[in-house]
Task: inverse folding
C-alpha cells in the first residue's frame, strides 16, 4: 500500500512516499519557491535493498505557477521511467496531510471530509501562517490523487490531553469559552513519535519523559504514559523556548510598550516577534552552525545567545520534572537537538539535582539513530532520537484506515 505524506507550506511542498508497512520511505522530496519562475524540486529515491547507498537525486529548476503545478511535476517524477516508483497517481492509496492546527476538534488523525475541510478553514484565524497552505495542499491532492483516501494529521492533536490547569490562561473565562483562547501546543507529531520511541527503548510504557524538539521552531513536552501533560508552545508557536527567529516567552507588557510609546504597528510587532527575534535577534544569524562557529571565534553575542537558549530549556526541565513528579529520560530531537553537542552539553550542565549526568565523549560522537548519552550512573537517561514526523504521519494514517 502506497502512502504519500504531504506537508504543504505557503511556497513549499515536502513529501515522502512509503510502501507500507515498510517504515523507510521509498522517496522524499522538497519543492521550493512555488509560485515563481525559478522554483526548484529536489527528489530523492532510496535504495531500500541497500539503505547504506546514497539516494538517487534529481534536481530541477523550473517555473511553477502554483501548488497544483508543483504536485503534477512531483507525480511526473514519481511515474517517470526508469525507476518509476508508481505507474499512475491511482496507485497512491492514502495521502497523509500535515495540518498545523486542529483546534480543540481533533485529538487524532482524521479522514478528510467536507466537514473536516470546513473546520480546517475555520481555524485559519488561529493559524494564519500555516492552515491556509495546508488547506491548499488538501484541495490539490484531492484533484491529483482523486482515488486516494485523504487523511489529516494535526500538529496540535497530541497535546489535546493537557489538563485544563495546563492549557488555560488566567484571562477572563469568556475569552476561552467564546474565543477559544488557550494553549494548544505544536510539534505534536514529533513529540509523540520520539516519546513512543523512548518508551519502547526504556521498555517502560508509563515512562516520565521530557521531549525537547529543537529545530527552527523549538518546543518541549512533558509526557507520561504516552500522553502529553504540558508543552511549551501555547496559543501559537511563538511561546516558550528561544527559537531560530522567534522570541519565545516574553512579558506581554513588552508588546504594549512596543505598540504604545515606541509606535510599532501590530504588523511590525508580529514580524519582530516571529521573524527577527530569537537567535537571529541576539546574534544576527538563526543557524546554530554559524552561531557555534562565532562562539568558537570568541564572539560575545554568540556566547550570550547560547547561554540564554540553554538556560530556558533548563528552566523548562525543572518545571516539567515537577509536572511529572519525577523523570526517567530527556530526549533531544530535530536539527539542533540531534546535531548540536554544545547545546546538549550546556543544557545538561549543573543539573545533578535533576539526575542528569552527561557522558561528554558520547555526546561528541556523531552517530546515526537512537543514542544514549548519559553516564551509567545517571539517574535520568539522556537520549538523542532522530525525529521522523512523516513516518509518524504514515503510521497514523495506516492505523486509522485499518480500523
Ligand atoms: P525545522 O524546524 O525547519 O524542521 P530542523 O529540525 O531541520 O528545522 O532544524 C533546522 C536547524 O537545525 C537549522 O536552523 C540549524 O540551526 C540546525 N542544524 C542543522 N544541522 C546542524 C548541525 N550539524 N549543527 C548544529 N545545528 C544544526
Result:
Amino acid at each position: 500500500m502506497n502512502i504519500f505524506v504531504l506537508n504543504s507550506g505557503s511556497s513549499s511542498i515536502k513529501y515522502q512516499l512509503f510502501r507500507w508497512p515498510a517504515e523507510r520511505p521509498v522517496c522524499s522530496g522538497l519543492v521550493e519557491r512555488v509560485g515563481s519562475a525559478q522554483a526548484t524540486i529536489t527528489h530523492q529515491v532510496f535504495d531500500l535493498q541497500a539503505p547504506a547507498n546514497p539516494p538517487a537525486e534529481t534536481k530541477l529548476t523550473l517555473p511553477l505557477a502554483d501548488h497544483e503545478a508543483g504536485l503534477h511535476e512531483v507525480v511526473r517524477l514519481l511515474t517517470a521511467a526508469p525507476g518509476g516508483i508508481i505507474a499512475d497517481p491511482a496507485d497512491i492509496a492514502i495521502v497523509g496531510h500535515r495540518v498545523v492546527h486542529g483546534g480543540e476538534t481533533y485529538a487524532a488523525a482524521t479522514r478528510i471530509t467536507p466537514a473536516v475541510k470546513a473546520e480546517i478553514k475555520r481555524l485559519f484565524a488561529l493559524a494564519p501562517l500555516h492552515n491556509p497552505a495546508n488547506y491548499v495542499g488538501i484541495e490539490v491532492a484531492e484533484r491529483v490523487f482523486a482515488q486516494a483516501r485523504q487523511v489529516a494529521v494535526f500538529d496540535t492533536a497530541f497535546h489535546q490531553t493537557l489538563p485544563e490547569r495546563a492549557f488555560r490562561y488566567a484571562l477572563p473565562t469568556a475569552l476561552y469559552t467564546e474565543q477559544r483562547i488557550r494553549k494548544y501546543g505544536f510539534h505534536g507529531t514529533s513529540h509523540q513519535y520520539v516519546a513512543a520511541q523512548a518508551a519502547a527503548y526504556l521498555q517502560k510504557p508509563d515512562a516520565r519523559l521530557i521531549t525537547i524538539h529543537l529545530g527552527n521552531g523549538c518546543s518541549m513536552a512533558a509526557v507520561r504514559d504516552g500522553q502529553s501533560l504540558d508543552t511549551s508552545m501555547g496559543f501559537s508557536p511563538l511561546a516558550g523556548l528561544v527559537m531560530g527567529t522567534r522570541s519565545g516567552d516574553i512579558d506581554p507588557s513588552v508588546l504594549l510598550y512596543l505598540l504604545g510609546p515606541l509606535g510599532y504597528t501590530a504588523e511590525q510587532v508580529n514580524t519582530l516577534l516571529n521573524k527577527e527575534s530569537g537567535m537571529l535577534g541576539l546574534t544576527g544569524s538563526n543557524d546554530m552552525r554559524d552561531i557555534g562557529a562565532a562562539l568558537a571565534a570568541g564572539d560575545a553575542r554568540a556566547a550570550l545567545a547560547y547561554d540564554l537558549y540553554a538556560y530556558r530549556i533548563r528552566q523548562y526541565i525543572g518545571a516539567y520534572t515537577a509536572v511529572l513528579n519525577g523523570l526517567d529520560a530527556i530526549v533531544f530531537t530535530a536539527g539542533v537537538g540531534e546535531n548540536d553537542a554544545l547545546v546538549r552539553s550546556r543544557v545538561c550542565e549543573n543539573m545533578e539535582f535533576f539526575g542528569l549526568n552527561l557522558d561528554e565523549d558520547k555526546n561528541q560522537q556523531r552517530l546515526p539513530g537512537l543514542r544514549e548519552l548519559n553516564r551509567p550512573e545517571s539517574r535520568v537517561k539522556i537520549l538523542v532520537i532522530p525525529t521522523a514526523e512523516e513516518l509518524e504521519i504514515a503510521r497514523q494514517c495506516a492505523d486509522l484506515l485499518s480500523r
